[in-house]
Design a protein that fits this description.
Layout: H1 5-15, H2 24-35, E1 39-42, E2 47-49, H3 50-66, E3 74-78, H4 83-94, E4 98-101, H5 108-118, E5 120-126, E6 128-129, E7 132-133, H6 134-141, H7 145-148, E8 159-163, E9 174-175, H8 176-179, E10 197-204, E11 210-216, H9 217-230, E12 238-241, H10 248-258, E13 264-267, H11 273-282, E14 287-290, H12 292-304, E15 314-317, H13 326-333, E16 338-340, E17 342-344, E18 351-354, H14 361-366, E19 370-371, E20 388-392, E21 406-411, H15 423-429, E22 437-445, E23 451-456, E24 461-463, E25 466-468, H16 470-477, E26 483-493, E27 497-506, H17 514-524, E28 533-536, H18 552-564
Parallel strand pairs: 3-4, 3-5, 5-8, 8-9, 12-13, 12-14, 14-15, 15-16, 27-28
Antiparallel strand pairs: 1-2, 6-7, 10-11, 17-18, 18-19, 20-21, 21-22, 22-23, 24-25, 26-27
Helix pairs in contact: 2-3, 2-4, 3-4, 5-6, 9-10, 11-12, 12-13
């Protein structure tokens, strides 16, 4: 039984009376000095202690430095939720480098784009994962990568390191085990500090191409402490999740947050409702991170095969559109478990609004959480918070009265300074020049600082918790010989939150085939970007603005009428 949340927060405040600015590796070392023998990473095969992960990260850093990686250079990772990912994250920080955690669902061209745009000098990649063959992608992108790195196409990429997951390594390639073979002779890097960039996290944006969000060590650690404080982490909290650690949710709210209480993560390689419940039971997890689609699947599993989960005391379900009635079902199956939900994005480091564990149920039903209190990590000028919000008219930028609906603007030390090598996109989100970031989301704030989302200004949507930008899909579809125009819109889906519907206009003399176009997209895009439905439309039937731009909200309504009735 958990102590009251206020008591747990007081315990954290006692342990951390002032904020100490650190790099990620320094935060790990501080935790290892206090909790060295405790579990940090738990898998079904073995467990890694704080001391073991810290030592491993030293070997990784030594290998990176020996490979010529210099402070401030960029190291890309294509890895699932493996223990090696954790060692790499802290090892890259320890070497003074910047981590580029790549979405491992990316296909060949998507991977190539990130490697090129990020200026990565070294890549550590799995050979295979599920149906994805990364070696085939590398062979096509940069023949001879085993010894020649990125070649002429990726001139900054000096070396590729292989993390074998499906058999013997490719002959001639350096393996991750070889990279991290020794800790001898490592000289601590002092050229970088807490205010330097730790991660560049790629997310789709208004231009339709992925943008690298700049996040510093201090931003990440302050937000992670805020997660522990806001949800009232008790000593030794154990969190399981299948959310990928290339994303801020699993990375910040899971991995980094447990450092402050000597807790552990139980990362899963892929989501399975049954496996999630098994992990909670087997590893005595007391917390779990979900997006609504995962929550719904777990509830279905419990309906079919009920079971007791005595260790579970906390749960957060956040990051997408919640299916109707889901909170009632959660209360039914998880009576007594502290339930929270929230709102955030990579640009504000992670969740910036979260309901309190002791909030009445109506707050979960009617809001997306309160502006997060983060204790000692907060900015006194913002009332002890890292991010504050304004609500403005999306067109005039004038402030909207309290409780009114408008576009959400964010400002504070938890907000990114911009996008890597994308000055135009950075200027666009900071259009007013006063430090307020345009989120593109529509919502309202009440007198108690609870935020409620009501829609989006921008066209992007979330499928299974992953943000999707329609232009990426439209560009792929219009590359097919039968498609003249493509307009992708979201459709509400009980399981995935939202899925894509592609309206396509045929090229003269062509007849687009829906199944063929879905397969075409599946070969070129990550699964969550592949449209669920393809519908044909005549040019004359596309609703447009006076300037000829398609009115996508009307296309979305038309799709819902056609497909949902």
């Amino acid at each position: 039984m958990l102590a009251p949340v206020a008591q747990r927060q007081a315990a954290l405040e006692k342990r951390f009376p002032t904020w100490e600015r650190r790099r990620l590796d320094q935060a790990l070392d501080a935790a290892a000095a206090e909790f060295g023998d405790r579990d940090l990473v738990v898998t079904d095969e073995r467990t890694f202690s704080y001391a073991e992960i810290a030592d491993w990260s030293v070997r990784v850093a030594n290998g990176l430095v020996a490979a010529g990686v210099r402070p401030g250079e960029h190291v890309a990772i294509v890895a699932a939720n493996l223990p090696e990912f954790v060692a790499l994250k802290f090892g890259i920080a320890r070497a003074g480098a910047v981590c580029i955690p790549v979405n491992f669902l990316n296909r060949r061209d998507e991977l190539g784009y990130v490697l090129d745009q990020s200026d990565a000098v070294l890549l550590v990649t799995m050979d295979r994962f599920r149906d994805l063959d990364y070696l085939a992608a590398l062979d096509a992108l940069m023949p001879g990568w085993e010894s020649g790195g990125g070649g002429s196409r990726f001139p900054t990429l000096r070396k590729v390191v292989l993390l074998p997951t499906s058999g013997p390594p490719r002959e001639g390639a350096t393996t991750f085990a070889e990279l991290a073979a020794t800790a001898e002779g490592f000289e601590p890097v002092t050229a970088t500090g807490p205010d330097d960039t730790a991660d560049i996290l790629y997310t789709s944006g208004t231009t339709g191409t992925p943008k690298g969000v700049l996040l510093t060590h201090d931003m990440l650690l302050r937000t992670a402490y805020g997660s522990a404080f806001g949800r009232g982490f008790q000593d030794g909290r154990r969190i399981t999740f299948s959310l990928p650690m290339y994303h801020v949710y699993g990375y910040v709210e899971g991995l980094l947050a447990v450092l402050f209480v000597g807790g552990a993560i139980v990362p899963q390689l892929a989501f399975s409702p049954a496996a999630t419940l098994d992990a909670i039971s087997r590893h005595r997890c007391d917390d779990v991170l979900f997006i609504p689609t995962m929550t719904a699947a777990v509830l279905d599993e419990l309906d079919a095969r009920p079971r007791s989960l005595p260790s579970l005391t906390s749960m957060i379900s956040s990051g997408g559109v919640a299916p109707t009635g889901i909170w009632d079902r959660i209360d039914e199956h998880f009576a007594g478990v502290e339930l929270t939900t929230g709102y955030g994005m990579s640009e504000v480091t992670a969740s910036s609004t979260v309901t309190r564990p002791d909030d009445p149920p109506e707050r979960r039903l009617t809001t997306n959480g309160r502006l997060r209190d983060v204790g000692v990590a907060g900015d006194p000028a913002l009332g002890g918070r890292l991010v504050e919000y304004r609500v403005v008219d999306a067109q005039t930028r004038a402030d909207v009265p309290l409780g009114g609906v408008g576009e959400l603007l964010a400002r504070g030390p938890g907000v990114t300074s911009g996008y890597y090598r994308k000055p135009d996109e950075t200027d666009a989100v900071f259009a007013d020049g006063d430090g307020w970031l345009r989120t593109g989301d529509l919502g309202r704030l009440d007198a108690d600082d609870y935020l409620t989302l009501v829609g989006r200004v921008k066209e992007s949507y979330r499928c299974g918790g992953e943000q999707v930008m329609p232009k990426e899909i439209e560009d792929v579809l219009t590359g097919h010989p039968s498609v003249g125009q493509a307009h992708v819109v979201p459709l509400r889906d009980e399981r995935m939150g939202e899925v894509g519907v592609a309206w396509v206009v045929a090229r003269p003399g062509a007849t687009p085939d829906a199944a063929e176009l879905v397969a075409y997209c599946r070969e070129r895009l990550a699964r969550f970007k592949v449209p669920r439905h393809v519908l044909t439309i005549e040019v004359a039937d596309i609703p447009t603005t006076p300037s000829g731009r398609p009115r996508k909200f009307l296309l979305a309504e038309l799709a819902a009428q056609r497909l949902l009735g």
